[in-house]
Amino acid sequence: MKRIAVIGTGYVGLVTGTIFAHTGNRVVCCDVDARKIDQLQAGHMPIFEPGLSDIVETSVREERLSFSTDLTAAIQEADILYIAVGTPMSAKGDADMTYINRVAMTIAEAINSPKIVVIKSTVPVGTGHRVGQLIREHRAAPHEVAMVSNPEFLREGTAVKDALAMERAVIGTSSEVAYKEIASLHETLAKTIMRTSIESAEMIKYASNAFLATKISFINDIASICEATGADVSDIARGMGLDPRIGHQFLKAGVGFGGSCFPKDTKALMRIAETNGMRFPLMNAVIETNERMRRSIVDKVNNAANGLQGKTVAVFGLAFKPDTNDMRDAPALDIIPALREHGATVKAYDPIAIPEAREVLGSRASYHTSLYEAAKGADVILVLTEWKDILQADYHRLYALMNHPAVLVDGRNCLPDMAYSAGFDIRQVGRNYEPHTLAKAASSG
Ligand code: UGA
After folding, report:
1. Any known ligand binding at 431?
2. Distance of CA 287 to the CA centre of its chain
3. Residues 100/102/107/108 CA torsion (nearest 10 deg)
4. For residue 244, is the peptide bond before it cis, meaning its omega torsion is within 30 degrees of 0?
5. Is residue 261 flagged as an active site residue?
6. Is residue 258 in contact with ligand 1, taking CB distance under 6 Å?
7. Which secondary-structure segment (H or E) carries 414?
8. Ligand 1 atom 3: residue of nearest CA
9. How confident is the model over 124-180, as pLDDT tens digits?
10. Is the Cβ–Cβ distance between 327 and 333 less than 8 Å?
């Protein structure tokens, strides 16, 4: 059993702390946000993440997991300090280090024994080294500080599953002792444990997210060419993915990537290149394509509806992806205001992200917890998130509730077979709608 303090109870911190408690360690998760800590202490999850509340509850009950705003006490009682505070995007596009620096100073002031300080947050290359120096320069007592970079690779919506069965744990450190400690924390969790320098571990994180984002923008550019040439991007992705060197994952064309990671990390990586005197035109193109996909779906809706003035669009799915209530950089945040600018009224549906969406979109949309309510009287349905209940909806019923001709724009190429026979004018991304071929392809794929 190790004594661990996790500083920052955002997505990454909360899941990381919970998993370490679940595997038998004593963990305190800290945050300066007293409201969030109160909520967690009362057993309420600040985020929606399948499976998380169950293991939080068990670990709290079995006294391995607790929550606190007392950072100093948590630091003093732990041997391993995981920093998982936010690194939001600064105005220049690089990662804002304010919270990381503040935590480093608090560790320096509170230090009462040797500590292993692990940076879990996504930080620019060189941060681990710099934070180590900062703590050592300001430490209240000359205890040893071993720095580690241990980047996070979990995905929202499958975070618990990912964290319990990691493909890899990357541990960047020059300290033998710290490596052994952090590696043993991951023994039962990760298929592969890889040791690197701090700088390489920091870079692996950016390079991984940037590469996945590149796959998405690549297939989205191919989708645009498919639309012009009559090819079907879903077949292209399947055909490409059968080559194991390419693989099937992250080749789903659609409205592009959102969330708290890809948009921020692609820009931050560009800044890292720039501040080191280099250009990264590939990354620039990835970002540009992603922004274009959001505009092009609005054009698609507008064209299909023959103009949007006075029309009603039912937007299906607001969260940036299914199984999360996270609205950060969700495509809906650009697309709904753009639909409004074209004169449309927007009725928005999401199974869980409505409170979060309402906070940022306000009165730009009306909000509905029923797909059928949202579709009633609409001219267009626009699918932005492939939630399970959108895949399983009764498309004949939806069609019957709408104004006719009824348009269905599928921003995720995710429609079930039934949708093709319901009577809609269907538009997808990178596929020219031909009812027979598509229905057949969908059922055989
Ligand atoms: C991503 C990475 O996948 C994680 O490995 C990483 O740990 C995390 O960022 C992070 O840095 O914290 P996440 O943002 O939760 O995870 O979501 P993804 O499943 O990667 O999806 C990102 C976006 O890409 C979503 O908007 C999704 O709809 C979109 N996407 C994904 C596509 O448009 N096409 C695809 O084929 C796959």
Report:
1. no
2. 16
3. 120
4. no
5. yes
6. yes
7. none
8. 155
9. 999 999 999 999 999 999 999 999 999 999 999 999 999 999 999 999 999 999 999
10. yes
Tokens of 241: 């993915």
pLDDT in tens, 328-386: 999 999 999 999 999 999 999 999 999 999 999 999 999 999 999 999 999 999 999 99
Q: Which of ligand 1's atoms lies nearest the C-alpha of 215?
A: 36
Domains in the chain, start-ordered, CATH in brackets? Answer: 3-196 (3.40.50.720), 205-289 (1.10.1040.10), 295-428 (3.40.50.720)
Name the token pair of 291.
């922004």
Q: Any idea which residue has 């600064």 for tokens?
A: 90
Residue 340 is encoded by which pair of tokens? 């409004």
Question: For 389-401, how does the pLDDT look when each residue is reduced to its tens digit (9 = 90+)?
Answer: 999 999 999 999 9
User: In the chain, what's the furthest Cα-to-Cα distance?
Assistant: 75
Question: Which of the following is catalytic: 30, 226, 261, 414?
Answer: 261
80-83/145-149 β-pairing: unpaired
Smallest CA-to-CA distance from 94 within 262, 273, 271 is with: 271
Residue 60, pLDDT > 60, answer yes
The residue behind tokens 């319990």 is 164
Q: Which amino acid is at 437?
A: T
Copy the structure tokens of residue 263: 């948009």
Q: Is the dihedral of CA 189, 193, 199, 205 positive or negative?
A: negative
Q: Cβ(206) to ligand 1 under 6 A?
A: no
Q: Which class for 381: exposed (0-12), middle (13-18), buried (19 or more C-beta within 10 A)? A: buried
